[in-house]
Structure formats: structure tokens, C-alpha cells
Amino acid sequence: MSLIDILARVDVLCKKYEKYDVDKQGGADSVSGQDQFAKLYAVVEADIEATLQKAEAAKNEKNRAAVATLNSEVRRSKAALRAELPKLQKLAAKKIRDITKEQQAARLDMVEELAARIDEISDGVVVNRQSTMLGGKAGMSKPMEIRVDTMDPDDLMRPEHYEDTEESTSFRQEFQARKARQDQGLDVIAEGLSTLKDIAADINEELDKQEPLINEVDTKIDKAAADLKNTNVKLKDTVTKAPYTLHYDHNKLGLVSILLDFG
Amino acid sequence: MADSLKHSASSSSSALSSQHPRLLQAHDLLRKAEKLTKLSLFNWSSDWVAATPLYEQAATAFKLAKVPDTAKLCYEKAATGQERLSSPWTAGKHMESAGQLAKELGLIDEAVDSYRRASELFLHCGKVQPSADVLSRGARAVEDERSEIAVRMYLDACAMLEEDGREQMAFDNYRAAVNLYVKLNRFKDAAAVLVRWGQSADKCHATQSQCKAYLSAVIVHLYDEDLKQAQQCYNDCSQVNAFSRSDQSETAEKLLSAYCEGNPDEIRHVVSSSHIITHLDHTIVRLAKQLPKGDVKAASVVEPGDDELNEEDLT
């Protein structure tokens, strides 16, 4: 057996028994507990990174629809991550050998750090921290925050809660303007479509009108072709049967050749 | 008649013989044909079999040489010849050519007669389509001078085609008739023809043309400042299923309700914003753009069947 063959056999055998390779699997079962936490921690961190990237993309995106989609995705992943955190905390609290007390404490800190990072990810919800508001809000105790899904009963009782802010009026106006533009575009499309419909209906009628005419032409031409064929055959017979004379008619020969090509 | 023919032939031949050898030839042909057909002491029967092709050749030669009156005469003779030879088809064709030349010469009544004769000849052969075609061509030729007669011809052509079951081909004739009536400002007749067009379209299931015809009829009545007629027309036409379901009937309804309210701005708005009206025939669109014509007063809506059922009448 040559060296190459030996190498190939070694490769195959290694592949076959890969699952017994301790180094590849990365540690025995005893360490799996630690690995579980580490694994989950790694997964959560990766998710956070991905979500952060999406948030960045949302900030740079020009298309409003894409921004809204990305923001909603970011919010969804944040909620999912927040759900993962309790699991992580439980794992961190579990006592595992080969791990020092400091490391365990450090783990709990890591989990809290993760929680803070998740909250930090911007998801498009506008948090109004500015204290400079419109005149209508002068003399208010605390600044208005726009929060999704959180309704403070105090907020509801406050009358300014239902007034239009500058942002909301401008948003409303923008909405109306865009809607009007959309309507215009739809009107143009409707006009084009009605013209198309009219033309199509007229074409339909034209075709209905011409169908019987074409059928008639068809039958007439069939008849004419049959007649021509018959005539050709008869002519051919006549010409070939005629006795050969020195004075042959040039015209007839020419005509015959044309007709024979035809038929 | 033969003398005048010879006289004209000889005079024109002497004037133009130097320039048109073909013209000379044509005159020769004509003379020969005349000799064959003229009855005299030596000629007891006219030899039309030989004369007719001579007449035809002479006619084409004269036409090319731009001598329309002689050409016309030759065509008429040729037509008679073909008739005698029992070939009404060619006879009809010659009569049509004679009619065209007559119109060129300005002899409109003769032209009308020639076209009608041609149509009869085609009917003899049993060919309805060419007969109607020649009538409509004739009508188009004379419509400027004799509009009444032209309209008659158009409508006769339509009747002929409908009898034969080819209503589809009649649409062009209807359209021409309507345009003529509108030009003559005879709006009631125009509307009547439009409704007849609609009926014809109904028979051959041409829904688009039918609905357009009905809408055009309503518009013509409104242009004629006859709101009552327009509403009655609309009510009658709505009995037809195909029309009542169409966009055209919606537009008609909008227009009529705007008229009932007596609001000219609304009327103008309906006309200008409607896509349906723009697709009608251009004469009708022109009328529609001029609506509302005259004063618009708010009128009451005529209910369908108002005339028959009178609740006060207890007899």
C-alpha cells in the first residue's frame, strides 16, 4: 500500500469515528453545565449583535416602509431576548463544579449587563425627553413621553393628553397629503384602465364581425384551389397525351411549366 | 343620343388627337361599338356580345384620358350590354363607375340614379353585401349636395343588411347616417337612428356598440334641450338588460340626475370627468362637451310607465 493510500485510509477512519473525538466535542459531560450557560450566553449575545445591526440599518434606511418593518423586527427580537434572560439567570445560579464563586457572581453580573444592553437597542419608539414643548404645554409637571402599550391613569385624566402636539398635527397633515397624492395616481390608473377596456371591447366586436367573413373567404379559396388542381391535372393529361409535333407551342409549354409548379 | 355622342367624340378627337394616340384609339373603339349596336336598315339586331368589351375598353381609355362625360356614357352602354349578356355583376360595377363619373361632372341626380341602379343589379345576382356597399359609397359621394337622399341611401343599406342577417356590417352605415343627421341639426331623427342602431346591435350581441348607441341617443336628446324625451329614452333603454348593467347607463343616469337638479356645473363636471363619454363617436363627444345647452331648470323625474297607470283614474 502506498503512502497516499495509507493517508486516505486514515482520513476515512478518522471521519468514521469522529464522534469519539474528545477534543472536537469540546469537553466531557461534566463540563456541559458550564457549557450550557456559555452556549446560551453566546447565543444571546449573537442575537443582541444582530438586533443592533438591524437597528443601525433602520437608522440609515430612507424608505419609510422598510424602516417600519425593521423597527418592528427589532422590537420582536428584543422581546424574545428578554424572555431568554430568566433562563440565563437560572443557569447562572445553578451550582456547577469547576467553577469558582467569583466566576458565578460574575455570571449574574453578565446577565444583568445583557439585560441593560437589550434595553438600550433603539427600536424606533420616540422617547420625548425634551423639555421645550409648545405653549399649550407650558406649566406641565413632567414631560410627555410617547410610550407604546403603557397607559398611566394619571396621564389619561390630564386634559392635555388628548390635544394635538406639533408632531401629531404635522403627521396628520403629511398623511392627508400622501393620501391625496395616492388618490391622484389611482385616478390616472383608472382612466388608463377604462380606455383599455373600451379598446378591448371594440376589438372584441371587430373580431366577432370579421369571423364569418374569414370563414367565407376560407371556403371560397378552398373551392378555388380544388378547381385549380383539377384544371392542372386535366391540362397535364392533355399536354402529355398530345402527339409530339416539331412545331410545339412555346406559350403552352411555358404555361404548363408554371401550372405544374403550382399544382 | 348617338348623334351627340358622335359629335362630342369627333370634336374632342380633333382637339386632342395630336397629344393622345390612346384617345384616338378610344374613339375608334367607340365608333366600332356604336356600329355594332345601332339598329338600322342593315343591322337588324344589336351584337352586344362583341360590342360590350369594346365599350368597356373605350370607357377605361376615356377615363384615363380624363374625358369624363364620354367615359360615363361608355360605362352606361357597357352596363346595358352586360345586362343583356345576363351578367348583372359586371353591369353593376359599370353602373357604379358611371355614377362616380357623374358625380365628378356634378350631375348629382344622375349619379344617385346610377348608384341605385347598380345596387339593384347586385341584388339581382343575389349579392346583398356589394349592393349595400354600393349604396353606402353612393351616399358618401352625394352627401354634401343631397344630404336627404344620402341619408335615405344609408338607411336603405342598413335595412338590406339587417334583412340578410348581417347586422354587424350595418354599423358603419348607421354611424354615417347619424353624423349626417347631426350635421343637418335634425336631432330627433339622429336619436331615432341611434336607437335603431342599438336594436341592430342587440340582435348580433354587440353589447359595447349597443350601450354606446343608447348613451349617444340620450346625449343627443339632451343637446336638443328635450329633457323629457331624454328621460323616456333612458327608461326605455334600461329595459334592456345589457344596457342597464353597463357603465354607459350609469353615466347616463348621472347626467340625467344632474339635469334634474338643474345644476349646470354638475353637468359639466359629469361630462368632463367621465371616461365613458370620451370613448363615444367624436360627433357625439362634441355635442356632449357643449352641454348644458340653453337654460337648465330643475325638472321632475318621469317614472317609467307613468302614462299607463294613473291612480286617480278609477275607470
Structural features:
heterodimer, A: 263 residues, mainly alpha, 8 helices, 0% strand, B: 315 residues, Serine Threonine Protein Phosphatase 5, Tetratricopeptide repeat, 17 helices, elongated, NSF_attach (chain B), soluble NSF attachment protein activity (chain B)
TL;DR of this structure?
Chain B: It is a peripheral membrane protein. The complex is a heterodimer of chains A (263) and B (315). Chain A is an all-alpha fold.
Q: What string gives the helices and strands of chain B in order? A: HHHHHHHHHHHHHHHHH
β content of chain A, as a range? under 5%
What are the segments of chain B in which pLDDT stays under 50 over at least 5 consecutive residues? Answer: 300-306
Overall 3D form of chain A: flat
Termini separation of chain B comes to 73 Å
Please state the CA-atom Rg of chain A, rounded to the nearest Å: 44 Å
Number of strands of chain A: 0
The average pLDDT of chain A is 78
Q: Roughly how much helix do the residues of chain B carry, as a percent range?
A: over 70%
Q: What are the low-pLDDT stretches of chain A, counting only 5+ consecutive residues below 50?
A: 127-141
CATH evolutionary superfamily of one domain in chain B:
Tetratricopeptide repeat domain
Largest sheet of chain B: none
Helix segment tally of chain B: 17
- Oligomeric category: heterodimer
- Main interface: chain pair and counts: A-B, 11 and 12 residues
The CATH architecture designation of one domain in chain B is: Alpha Horseshoe
For the sheet with most strands of chain A, the description reads: none
Helix coverage percent of chain A:
over 70%
Structural class computed from helices and strand pairing of chain A = mainly alpha
